[in-house]
Specification:
The chain is mainly α and 151 residues long. The chain has helices spanning 7-19, 35-44, 63-69, 88-95, 110-125, 129-144; strands spanning 53-58, 75-80, 104-105. It starts with 6 loop residues before the first helix and ends in a 7-residue tail after the last helix. It binds 5-O-phosphono-beta-D-ribofuranose. Its EC number is 5.4.99.18.
Length: 151
């Protein structure tokens, strides 16, 4: 994520990963304030065994696109809600990638962060049948938790 201030939102991404038994690491890597750290992080991630990157940032949110430009790994972008434009700035900064560099942009805020974790797990399940089974069970449990009757 681009700042420690993104953590309350980005922490939501860890929930489905934890529930599904997917290991992850977290880091603050700012495109603006720590650009060299970002270059080092993004350009070496695939060599460290990382398989998917979730990048969350707010405001003028260059981080997901910049990371995507420097790694062959899939990058999932999370627009963090911003102070002055409620995240519309973050969303447009992340979603409108030019042709040739892809970012899988999620919804603004906590739901987007949660779904980013879920999406990462689904990507990883393509080559991990046991994770795929856990995902199927997780879905069934979610469906079973939705009551048919209105209270
Ligand atoms: C972005 O600027 C971060 O991703 C964060 O959402 C936003 C504000 O950062 P702080 O000023 O709170 O550190 O780079």
């Amino acid at each position: 994520m681009g700042s420690q201030s993104d953590w309350p939102t980005m922490e939501m991404a860890t929930k489905p990963l934890t529930e599904l038994g997917v290991p992850f690491a977290t880091a603050v890597v700012s495109a603006h304030r720590t650009p060299q750290r970002m270059v080092e992080f993004a350009s070496t991630a695939h060599e460290r065994g990382t398989q998917v990157i979730i990048a969350g940032a707010g405001g003028s949110a260059h981080l997901p696109g910049m990371i995507a430009a420097m790694t062959p790994l899939p990058v999932i972008g999370v627009p963090v809600a911003s102070k002055f434009m409620t995240g519309m700035d973050s969303l447009l900064s992340i979603v409108q990638m030019p042709k040739g560099v892809a970012v899988a942009t999620q919804a603004v805020g906590a739901s987007g962060a949660y779904n980013a974790g879920l999406m990462a797990a689904q990507m990883l399940s393509l080559t991990d049948p046991e994770l795929q089974q856990r995902l199927i069970a997780w879905r069934e449990k979610q469906s079973a938790g939705v009551p048919f009757e209105v209270e």
